[in-house]
Amino acid sequence: RGGSCSWGTCFDTSKCRGDGLKVFVHPVTGPISETQRRVLASVEGSRYYATAAAKACLLLLAGQCGREPLLWHGGRNHLVISLHAAPCPRTFQLGQAMVAEASPTVDTFRPGFDVALPLLPEAHPLRGGAPGRLRQYSPQPREALLAWAGESGGGPPAGTDSSACPWHGRCEQDAGAEQTHPGDTLPSATFCLIPGRRPGAGRFLQALQAGCIPVLLSPRWELPFSEVIDWTKAAIVADERLPLQVLAALQEMPPARVLALRQQTQFLWGAYFSSVEKVVLTTLEVLRSRLAGAPAHPWQLWNSPPGALLALSTFSTRPQDFPFYHLQQGSRPEGRFSALVWVGAPGQPPVKLIQAVAGSRHCAQILVLWSSERPLPSRWPETAVPLRVIGGHRKASDRFFPHAAINTDAVLSLDAHSSLSTSEVDFAFAVWQSFPERMVGFLTWSHFWDEARGGWGYTADRTNEFSMVLTRAAFYHRYYHTLFTHSLPKALRVLADEAPACVDVLMNFLVAAVTKLPPIKVPYSKQQEAAPLAPWGPGSTAQPQSQPPVPDCINPMVAGFGHMPLVSSRLRLDPVLFKDPVSVQRKKYRSLEKP
Amino acid sequence: MKTKHRIYYITLFSIVLLGLIATGMFQFWPHSIESSSDWSVEKRSIRDVPVVRLPADSPVPERGDLSCRMHTCFDVYRCGFNPKNKIKVYIYSLKKYADDLGVPVSSTISREYNELLTAISESDYYTDDINRACLFVPSIDVLNQDTLRIKETAQALAQLSRWDRGTNHLLFNMLPGGPPEYNTALDVPRDRALLAGGGFSTWTYRQGYDVSIPVYSPLSATVDLPEKGPGALLAGGGFSTWTYRQGYDVSIPVYSPLSATVDLPEKGPGPRRYFLLSSQTALHPEYREDLEALQAKHGESVLVLDKCTNLSEGVLAVRKRCHRHQVFDYPQVLQEATFCLVLRGARLGQAVLSDVLQAGCVPVIVADSYILPFSEVLDWKRASVAVPEEKLSDVYSILQSVPQRQIEEMQRQARWFWEAYFQSIKAIALATLQIINDRIYPYAAISYEEWNDPPTVKWSSVSNPLFLPLIPPQSQGFTAIVLTYDRVESLFRVITEVSKVPSLSKLLVVWNNQNKSPPEDSLWPKIRVPLKVVRTAENKLSNRFFPYDEIETEAVLAIDDDIIMLTSDELQFGYEVWREFPDRLVGYPGRLHLWDHEMSKWKYESEWTNEVSMVLTGAAFYHKYFNYLYTYKMPGDIKNWVDAHMNCEDIAMNFLVANVTGKAVIKVTPRKKFKCPECTAIDGLSLDQTHMVERSECINKFASVFGTMPLKVVEHRADPVLYKDDFPEKLKSFPNIGSL
After folding, report:
1. A246 has a chain B CB within 8 A of its CB
2. From A589, which residue of chain B is nearest by alpha-carbon distance?
3. What's the CA gap between A505 and A445, in Å, rounded?
4. ipTM
5. Domain annotation for chain A: domains and CATH numbers
6. Interface contacts (A, B; CB < 8 Å)
């Protein structure tokens, strides 16, 4: 491996100038492990994938044995991924290739050039992955302070256990787990001691998942993605020669720090490590950041929820432009919204709706997304705010395209059939300003596990809880348009286009996967009948029964996301004096109470 | 390319050297300054400094060991004594060193190094006890390699009393290497000593061991470029002995002890006259060609300056730059540019970086492999643009892709870096020690935000202690804490009512009456969950917010001993709402603060309003961590003040939670008439009028202690999904809401 390589000297960025980062994967020769297969699948499913080497600026090599591949060129613009010790010897020099290796030793690691990967267990899932184990913020009252993980995966060899614990008798010995069964025996303690030598690296990820704060004693290996992840926020790296000081420091650590460290372990685990796909996409994102140059991915986007895979720097590099960082930035979302009205098959301009929405003093503009076969009407209602018509491509996913005309943080997504009053719009927008990262809607659906069919289902029946809001009347941040269009797997967007009812489900999946929280429901005066499940289906204007035969979108989406992201809520946010026994004159949103 | 550079440097060096000899100036930087040992404990005059003779054969340390890391070359045991996670630094006393023949090894000590040692000796790090020290700083000045006799300086280091191969010794060097090669690290053999160096490259920098520091610019001290606020332009100026920027890093000493400083008018972020500026002199001809080409292509928006050729007598050449025949004041001209180039010279580290940051100009770093100052902790992406040397000709288009708002933030960030870490030798010294301190006590290290966020961001940003989106499991339940004095009958009714709530897991009665014992065990209501009575030592309101060990759940329900109007459904629903908002106060009666324009102060409001900003803690759910914060982290004297006044503990809690989370409260369920909920402690005293006045005073008092008004006003409350909907009541989860 070229010891003197750096990003500037050994990587030719000029090849990436046109299309940005495009990755070609060398065809595999020889045996390949299951994890490697998953790595390749992740790259091939990503938006960086190039089908031909000529179109790519990065060539990827995973699990190559024997001789060097074609187009090797001394390793220039190559990334060699090795998650495990190679099953067979490599007979060629790595040359100028970058190495993405699991837990590389610090002596050979070239910062800013190589990429440090986590040491993944063999059975690490391709997508989704198990969520973090932490269910509460503060440590359990009688939780052990410290767990000590053995050196090898199968538990410590007899006789070495007590000597390896630097604090005699004060380590909670955990049983040790085979790497092939991750999560079987996750340590349950506030801190987890990870030895500095390399085999300890496997324990590191387990501790992270368990919410057990890793305490690394002079690690000889580079922490995963150390180029972008600030590990001081999630782990303690200490000098192994001062064990007593470390123990004292852990015992005296202020609760605020313990809380913050615990939460950060969970965020990092879920954002970058819980699946092979996340690890691979993070690797590519690190490289893309380098390509983009200086203002690529600010620290904050990497190191606070939802993480850099979900906060795309292609959208903006200013944290304030996203819905997630207003508190940290001391900023607030804009006080205006754009109404985006989708006009489908019947092709009638929804005059009443437009007037009601334009009546809100927070409304900045009205955008009509004309997706009807019929020609555009010549007359539009007079409104106090600008009205623009955008031609659609008659695809359901058009609704969530990041149209350049949307120039406010907030989007009010509407359907020509929707019916809202100005009061309802005003109140919902006031609520959204308190929750800019969530969807705030009027009509809801809920999902459930269908034992009989052995799959997920969803219903429009009115129940005591809900997990989705319909985008035919909902506020959300315009960033979700970018995320919907540029980060979702293509297969899912195609699914939504083919079955328009699915587009709502998909958007709700996406927002829930980002926020890990339910959407918010506000009162809706016209909610007498349940919201139909297929609002844009052919001839869908009126569906009498509450369970029309709709295509199954929810199960393919669960498969696509790798897990069920939806979260249920049992509450609705009403105006403070909603239906209180007090004079209507005192109420600001009195029209919401009309029957 | 390499050899071309080399020949160029050699030629240039020879010319400069000849020039030096010709003018007979042997006064290399740094200058020796009179009476400069005032940092030392003995306060000796520099003339009394003992002279140490170094025999020609005295030992020379090994060259620096490139494989050194903290865990291999640093003796951390020496730092074991240090309390409060702070390293102790010892400074060797000042000596003069001479060789066998009596020729001095170096001129004693420069003004800058003296300032540096003074800064350390005045800091918390300093110790005069060599036996307790964790880090040793020699009084041998190696800031500028040009002034050093390499071998003899090394010999001087080796004879220091605790040298021990340089273990735990810290050397400061800003100008490393010498002609013609210009190594990027100090050439003095130093074995294991840590090096705080200005101008490291990736080849010489030992990651996590050395510290990369700025090359101090003397203009920092003498030129005042205010970031904001207008100021008059004064004539004059002055600078110290840092003259290496003059020619080609080989110094031509020009020492001019002028005293006046220069004020400049406001130049905040925003459009400036030039898009890109190059102010360095003695650039490599190839770079200059590239720059001239840029200027030719982009015209007025690019300004390439050079040194002036025919300045009149008495004009300081370092303070002027020229473009053809046009003369510009330096560094003031930097304030006219959006981006300022910082190109590698013979050395990687350039003092111009400091001037550029001071001017709030965004530095464009064109120096491959350069380790930026304090890069271990500073996020340079926020303040600078790095462009590979081979892309210099594309620099204009690269910079054009940076959005305007980003540029403004980078300008602010650049200025902040200068203010915090560049502007004085002291700032440089303390940042260096802090970095080493953070490595030794990583669990007490300064965070990224503290290093990098400008004060304005630090002030307005909130870091929520419960930031992870998490919905705690319902199974854990909540602990109800009832504060009581002596209303036993009412208390028992509350206990009975609350015990009906399904998710209650424990009930804690805080008995606040010292004169009376709580009723016997047998008299208490029999309930299905553990009931525990805590007796307090003093009748204080803050007892209700103490983080009792008995609280095992994360959710706490604070409830007064007279709140009997809440139904079991309402309490259970409140708990469910808390689970969805675990970082907030979730309560029943809501209150509002208003700005009274007539009185110009805050006013407390309990009427039927459309907004809420507080909930009363006579009945509220919250995370138990806030009990810890209330008890141990309440700002100012608020906690004592509340206990003394026997009022407003709930307002204090609302302030605390809103301030730390930046979020509003959640009021649950419809309004109902609470039986004087705000005057529980002392019966009968609740004359409404005085009560409201007192509560308003609390708000004003707390707002002044917090230094801000943290409360957030919202227009919503939480109800069950189907509340008051036209839907069969028996199918609703929480039918019994708003009924009492």
Report:
1. yes
2. B610
3. 9
4. 0.91
5. 7-117 (no CATH), 144-274 (3.40.50), 337-537+550-561 (3.90.550.10)
6. 242
B715 neighbourhood in chain A, CB within 8 Å = 427, 430-431, 575-576, 588-589
> Strand ranges (DSSP E) for B130-285?
135-137, 170-173, 194-197, 211-212, 223-224, 262-263, 274-278
What gap in Å lies between CA B446 and CA B577, rounded to an integer? 36
* Amino acid at position B674, single letter: F
Q: What is the DSSP letter of A562?
A: S
Residues of A annotated catalytic, as ranges: 504
The three-class DSSP label of residue B248 is: coil
Selecting from B406, B459, B471 the residue whose C-beta is nearest the C-beta of A295 gives B406
- Residue B708 at interface with chain A, using a CB cutoff of 8 Å: no
**How many whole angstroms separate alpha carbon A380 and alpha carbon A377?**
7
B616-667 pLDDT, tens digit per residue, is: 999 999 999 999 999 999 999 999 999 999 999 999 999 999 999 999 999 9
Question: How would DSSP label each residue in B13-75?
Answer: HHHHHHHHHHHT---PSSPP-SS--TTSTT---GGGPPEEE--TTS--PPPP-TT--HHHH--
Contact of B10 with chain A, judged by CB distance below 8 Å, is answered with no
CA distance B124 to B434: 11
Cα separation, B477 vs B468, in Å, equals: 20
- Residue A464 touches partner B, C-beta closer than 8 Å: yes
Q: Does B548 touch chain A (CB under 8 A)?
A: no
Per the document, the length of chain A is 595
Q: Cβ distance A31 to A97 under 8 Å?
A: no
The 8 Å CB, 24+ separation contacts for A329-335 are A329/B457, A329/B460, A329/B461, A330/B457, A330/B459, A330/B460, A330/B461, A330/B462, A332/A433, A333/A409, A333/A410, A333/A432, A333/A433, A333/A436, A333/A477, A334/A408, A334/A409, A334/A410, A335/A362, A335/A433
Q: For residue B410, which residues of chain A lie inside 8 Å, CB to CB? A: 295
- Candidates A566, A576, A585, partner chain B, best to mutate (most B CBs within 10 A): A576
Q: What is the Cα A72 distance to its own chain's centre?
A: 34
Residue ranges and CATH numbers for the domains of chain B are 56-198+424-458 (no CATH), 255-309+316-417 (3.40.50.2000), 474-590+608-684+711-718 (3.90.550.10)
Tokens found for residue B505: 């897991």
| Residue B129 CA from chain centroid, whole number | 30
3-state DSSP assignment of residue A371: coil
Chain B residues inside the 8 Å CB shell of A305: 467-469
Question: What are the 10-residue block averages of pLDDT along chain A, 595 residues in total?
Answer: 74 82 85 83 89 90 72 87 70 83 87 91 87 88 76 36 47 42 63 82 89 90 93 91 86 92 96 95 92 72 94 88 92 95 81 94 95 83 91 82 95 92 96 97 94 91 93 96 92 86 92 97 74 41 44 88 95 94 89 78
DSSP string, A270-294: IIIISSHHHHHHHHHHHHHHHHH-T
Looking at CA atoms only, how far is residue B606 from chain A in angstroms? 13
Q: What count of other Cβ atoms lies within 10 Å of the Cβ of residue A367? A: 21
Best A136, A297, A468, A580 member to test B by mutation, with max B CBs in 10 Å, is A136
CB contact under 8 A, A259 and B465: yes
Q: What residue type is assigned to position A393 of the chain?
A: H
* C-alpha distance from residue B118 to each of A122, A202, A399, B85, B123 (Å): 57, 48, 65, 22, 9
Contact between residue B125 and residue B481 where contact means Cβ atoms under 8 Å apart:
no
Structure tokens at B552: 């095992």
Q: For residue B497, give how far its alpha carbon lies from the nearest alpha carbon of chain A (Å).
A: 23
Q: Looking at CA atoms only, how far is residue A4 from chain B in angstroms?
A: 8
Taking a C-beta distance cutoff of 8 angstroms, is the pair A52, A24 a contact? Answer: yes
Sequence-ordered strand ranges (E) for A63-143: 78-82, 98-102, 115-117
